[in-house]
Amino acid sequence: MWPDMEAVYLNYRTPKRVIIASMIIGVLPLIPTLIAAAIASVFSIPLSEAGPPNVPFGSLLYAMSLCFWGVLISGPIGIIGATIGIVWSLCVAAINKSRRLNLNA
Question: Are 46 and 29 a contacting pair, CB within 8 Å?
């Protein structure tokens, strides 16, 4: 196979980073939406997609609440990235197992 590579096992660091990064990308647009919903709930401000409420910072809350629609793009990217990371981890595990079996034989 590879010279002097039989004893070296692949690590899971990079697939873990891909999974974590893709999950962060998938959830990122929800953060401003949840903050806007919490502020609106605390101050009893009606928040809807019809338009900004007539209160100070109403347009900011409205813009923050509309960030939810970004999940339509980032959600599938996050799911695809996490799936790639999981498949990558399974491939690394299979390669490490086959290397261990080849070394023991």
Answer: no
In a domain, 7, yes or no: no
59, 65 contact by CB (below 8 A): no
- Please tell me the least confidently modeled range out of 21-30, 79-88, 96-105: 96-105
67 is a domain residue:
yes
For residue 15, give the nearest of 84, 80, 97 by alpha carbon.
Answer: 84
When divided into structural domains, the chain yields a total of 1
Query: Are 13 and 92 within 8 A, CB to CB?
Result: no
In the chain, at which residue ranges do the beta strands (DSSP E only) sit?
Answer: none
Residue 17 lies in a domain: yes
Cα separation, 39 vs 10, whole angstroms: 47
Q: Is 76 inside any structural domain?
A: yes
Range of the domain at 87: 13-104
Asked whether residue 5 carries a pLDDT value surpassing 80, the answer given is no
CA 33 to chain CA mean position, Å: 16
